[in-house]
Amino acid sequence: MAYWLAKTEPESFSYSDLEKLGQDRWNGVRNFAALKHMKQMKLGDLVFIYHTGKEKAIVGVAEVISTFYPDPDETDERFIIVDVKSRYPLDRPVTLKEIKSNVLFQEWELVRQSRLSVMPVSEEHWKSILELSKLH
Fold first, then answer.
1. CATH architecture assigned to 3-133
2. SS (H, E, C) the chain
3. How far is the C-alpha of 50 from the C-alpha of 94, rounded, in Å?
4. How many angstroms separate the CA atoms of 124 and 1, rounded?
5. pTM for the predicted model, two decimal places
6. How do residues 36-66 score in pLDDT, each as one tens digit?
7. ∠ CA(110), CA(69), CA(35), 5° rounding?
8. 5 has which bridge partners?
9. What is residue 136's predicted lDDT score, i.e. its pLDDT?
């Protein structure tokens, strides 16, 4: 199993929207590095859902429930989507500020390439984010 992070603008589509739907397409990705990561997603992989904008925080976990396929709403076959389902919200959001202030995350794309909308998460980073979400 691999771990990922996918960003969304909560005003357009939030983690709670995904929870209400149960599952949905993860679409709208246009950056080719991010699309390359989406092509590597496998069934059962877990995905941190990150809210951009004012929130700037990891808020929940989803599961990949399909391999990638062409976005039916696009004419360019390079634009793909995967289907995801909600798994659980984090105990509390883990903010970008917290992540940037922690030396453990210095080399993570979330810190180094802030505009990348889909990125891998190492197992160490995954576990650390889950631990941080439990701290109050």
1. Roll (3.10)
2. CCEEEEEECCCCCCHHHHHHHCEEEECCCCCHHHHHHHHCCCCCCEEEEEECCCCCEEEEEEEECCCCEECCCCCCCCCEEEEEEEEEEEEEEEEHHHHHCCHHHCCCHHHHCCCCCEEEECHHHHHHHHHHHHCC
3. 9
4. 13
5. 0.95
6. 999 999 999 999 999 999 999 999 999 999 9
7. 25
8. 48, 119
9. 67
